[in-house]
């Protein structure tokens, strides 16, 4: 097993069969010890955060599999905080696709002159480039095409997949009286056949979820969702 990349919240290893192994760490994004799913720095370490993130990720990826949505998921070992995935190449140098159901986070910071906090948004999709140095700049469909990151056809595919997956997560959370405000995904092309699939993770670290109008921290979210599972 060869370590090929150390991310902020996961370490990536190459397995002998060509798959990747993602090891979920207890580091979470945020600033000055405060968790923020939109942050580009490791803000704090919470014991158990890695396993909790993986447990939720496994839960959602297995639901997606049942529904026939293409992902990189192979299997997961929660005790070891590891997930085996099919190797993919990312678009450009990495990109995030966000689906917004209510105005919070960076959307609210940017457009606060026109929206109120928590205002409902109709499955609004936007793309940001993974570029910590430039604070993950948002980019339009035209920009993605012009810079050779994503064709217009691929953008359509990703937008539709993003809304479909977002809706599935939203529906699962609603079963526990939790409301999804926003969620971010990563996509890639599988090395084996170039298919566009969902990669990375689906955990509390990638979404904002609320219960009774109160934001739910990732560890708490994992407990609420997995209760009785
Ligand atoms: N199936 C996959 N194939 C290839 N790369 C993947 C796959 N799934 C996830 N990744 C990549 O693995 C990394 C996961 O690590 P982590 O989430 O810690 O990184 P990050 O902090 O989001 O980003 P950075 O890359 O800026 O460190 C990301 O770069 C993600 O794009
Ligand atoms: Mg990440």
From TrEMBL:
Entry keyword set: ATP-binding, Ligase, Nucleotide-binding, Purine biosynthesis
Top EC class of this enzyme: ligase
GO-annotated molecular function: ATP binding; phosphoribosylaminoimidazolesuccinocarboxamide synthase activity
InterPro entries linked to this entry: SAICAR_synt/ADE2_N, SAICAR_synthetase
EC number: 6.3.2.6
Domain SAICAR synthetase/ADE2 N-terminal: 4-215
Annotated metabolic or biological route of this protein: Purine metabolism; IMP biosynthesis via de novo pathway; 5-amino-1-(5-phospho-D-ribosyl)imidazole-4-carboxamide from 5-amino-1-(5-phospho-D-ribosyl)imidazole-4-carboxylate: step 1/2
Residue stretches spanning the membrane: none
GO biological process, one term: 'de novo' IMP biosynthetic process
Catalytic activity of the protein: 5-amino-1-(5-phospho-D-ribosyl)imidazole-4-carboxylate + L-aspartate + ATP = (2S)-2-[5-amino-1-(5-phospho-beta-D-ribosyl)imidazole-4-carboxamido]succinate + ADP + phosphate + 2 H(+)
Family: Belongs to the SAICAR synthetase family.
Protein name per Swiss-Prot or TrEMBL: Phosphoribosylaminoimidazole-succinocarboxamide synthase
Organism: Natronincola ferrireducens
Lineage: Bacteria, Bacillati, Bacillota, Clostridia, Peptostreptococcales
């Amino acid at each position: 097993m060869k370590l090929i990349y150390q991310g902020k919240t996961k370490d990536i290893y190459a397995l002998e069969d060509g798959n990747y192994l993602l090891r979920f760490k207890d580091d979470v994004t945020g600033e000055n010890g405060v968790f923020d799913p939109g942050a580009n720095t490791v803000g704090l370490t919470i014991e158990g955060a890695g396993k909790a993130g993986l447990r939720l990720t496994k839960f959602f990826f297995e639901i997606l599999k049942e529904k026939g949505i293409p992902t990189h998921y192979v299997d997961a070992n929660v005790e070891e905080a590891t997930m085996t995935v099919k190797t993919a190449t990312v678009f450009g140098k990495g990109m995030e696709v966000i689906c917004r159901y209510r105005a919070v986070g960076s959307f609210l910071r940017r457009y606060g002159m026109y929206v109120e906090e928590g205002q409902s948004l109709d499955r609004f999709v936007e793309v940001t480039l993974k570029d910590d140095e430039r604070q993950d700049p948002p980019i339009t469909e035209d920009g993605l095409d012009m810079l050779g990151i994503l064709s217009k056809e691929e953008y359509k595919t990703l937008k539709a997949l993003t809304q479909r997956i977002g809706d599935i997560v939203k529906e699962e959370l609603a079963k526990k009286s939790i409301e999804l405000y926003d969620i971010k995904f990563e996509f890639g092309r599988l090395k084996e056949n170039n298919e566009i699939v969902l990669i990375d993770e689906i955990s509390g670290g990638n979404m904002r979820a609320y219960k009774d109008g109160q934001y739910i921290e990732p560890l708490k979210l994992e407990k609420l969702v997995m209760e009785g599972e």
